[in-house]
Design goal:
Layout lengths: L1 E2 L6 E2 L28 H6 L14 E7 L5 E7 L1 H4 L4 E6 L8 E4 L5 E4 L4 E2 L5 E7 L2 H10 L1 E6 L6 H4 L13 E9 L2 H6 L3 E9 L11 E7 L2 E6 L4 H12 L6 E4 L15 H13 L3 E4 L2 H7 L6 E9 L5 E13 L11 H5 L6 E9 L13 H18 L4 H6 L5 E2 L5 E2 L5 H11 L2 H13 L4
């Protein structure tokens, strides 16, 4: 495979095959042992410098005007009053030269929006930004910007978004086909089941809310940009800024020695990084742009709400015969990934020969989803375990025993690749002993037998 890189064109290097097989570990000197952390003193003493702590000589402070509507078209933006206010050094918006940077990929090599796009598809979309001597002056100037809107119909519920006549979030409709998977014959599996359970389960959207807010400090030195970013991936920020500003990678440096929480929400690059860089270049001074807590709730990502339907069948001895899963989710207005790996545990966690999974995504007028501690996993796991508990009760088996009878030896979702061990059996058995599962079950049965609740 040949491709253009920042360094040299030609064949990409490949990793050679190992010359000998690595034997499994029998004893470890590092893994599983406590080790001193090189940054422990800085963290516990308060000496660690986080990106939000960075203060540079001559630094300006930025604030952003955002759409107050879930769906609107910006008709006008008058920044004249804001530009003349005390302490204000720069105001940028969609009409500012150099600010019309494409944003939000369409997945086909193009883009569906711009940095300050006049078509706002969710509350909080960026309309203009100000750099001033103090945060208070910046916010005063933001409030002085006069913006006019045409408010448009909006949809915020994923099921409503798929209904006929729903407001269109993106041209072409709101439905986005997702991942699907099948093995065996699900209909035959249900036919041989002695018990069948079907549940519809929903989860609400969740916000990451890390202690340190999202944001950065940007400084130019000639044509070289340095950004101190609260990020979980400095290289992702570096490459995105280099692309947006048409700079070589070598001219963009991103520093993030510490991050005050992220939980997945700081894996992607936000518009705030580019806005800070544009304002810093325009003013010739460093610019600090950190979001308020309220802003992070709108534009710094979320774990999407999901609607799940799961049908499961089992024999009287606890053998699973079929699992049929449908998942629905939304990544917001700009992401097609509202379901993530929602169905992975249905595919793989318990032995079952007949499995069907279908995921569907839908656009809604909301901020873009971001990874949150294994995208889709917690929601799908919760749904699966609710159904397994109900199915165990239907066939009269202890729910721990039911699970033990269905521990897989291979990764079914990966085509039967053998596991060395999943650890699942040990987890169930040791966990049940640790919190006295058998004793608790006997006590509960005795209480019910004596008329207790």
């Amino acid at each position: 495979m040949t491709t253009e890189t920042y360094y040299a064109p030609g064949e990409l290097p490949t990793t050679p095959e190992p010359k000998q097989r690595q034997e499994p570990w029998t004893a470890t000197k590092v893994v599983g042992r406590a080790l001193p952390r090189v940054d422990a003193y800085e963290r516990v003493s308060g000496a660690a410098v986080y990106p939000s702590d960075v203060r540079l000589p001559g630094m300006l402070h930025a604030a952003v005007l955002r759409s107050p509507h879930a769906h609107a078209r910006v008709l006008e933006v008058d920044v004249s009053r804001a530009e003349s206010m005390p302490g204000v050094h720069a105001v940028v918006h969609d009409g500012t030269p150099g600010a019309g940077v494409p944003w939000h990929s369409d997945g086909k090599g193009g883009f569906v929006s711009r940095l300050f796009d006049p078509h706002c598809r969710h509350e909080g979309e960026e309309i203009a930004a100000v750099a001033a001597e103090t945060p208070y002056q910046a916010w005063d100037a933001v409030r002085a910007i006069a913006a006019g809107y045409e408010v448009l119909p909006a949809v915020s519920d994923v099921e409503d978004a798929l209904a006929p006549g729903a407001p269109e979030v993106r041209e072409g409709g709101n439905r986005v086909p997702g991942d699907s998977y099948q093995r065996g014959d699900v209909a035959a599996g249900f036919a041989e089941a002695d018990a069948v359970v079907e549940l519809r389960l929903t989860t609400a959207a969740e916000i990451h809310t890390p202690l340190e807010l999202h944001g950065c400090v940007a400084r130019w030195e000639g044509n070289r940009l340095t950004v101190w970013e609260s990020s979980q991936g400095v290289y992702a920020v570096q490459s995105r800024l280099a692309e947006a500003l048409n700079l070589p990678l070598a001219n963009v440096r991103v520093i993030g020695p510490y991050v005050g929480g992220g939980f997945g929400s700081k894996l992607a690059t936000g518009k705030w990084s580019l806005i800070a860089a544009l304002l810093a270049r325009r003013t010739g001074r460093p610019v600090r742009l950190f979001l308020t807590r309220e802003e992070t709730l709108l534009v710094a990502g979320n774990r999407p709400a999901n609607v799940m339907r799961l049908k499961a069948g089992a024999k009287r001895d606890g053998t699973l015969t079929a699992l049929d899963f449908e998942g629905l989710g939304s990544g917001g207005a700009y992401s097609e990934n509202g379901t993530g790996i929602l169905d992975w545990l249905v595919r793989d966690l318990y032995t079952c020969p007949n499995v069907r999974c279908v995921n569907t995504n839908a656009y809604i007028h909301a901020g873009e989803q971001r990874a949150m501690r294994a995208p889709g996993h917690p929601q799908g796991s919760w749904a699966l375990e609710q159904v397994i508990d109900e199915l165990a009760a239907r066939v009269g088996l202890d729910p721990v025993e039911f699970r033990l009878r269905n521990v897989p030896a291979v990764s079914q979702g990966r085509g039967g690749v053998p596991y060395t061990t999943t650890g699942l059996r040990q987890c169930l058995e040791q966990g049940a002993r640790a919190f006295g599962w058998a004793e608790a079950r006997r006590a509960a049965e005795a209480s019910r037998a004596s008329g207790g609740s």
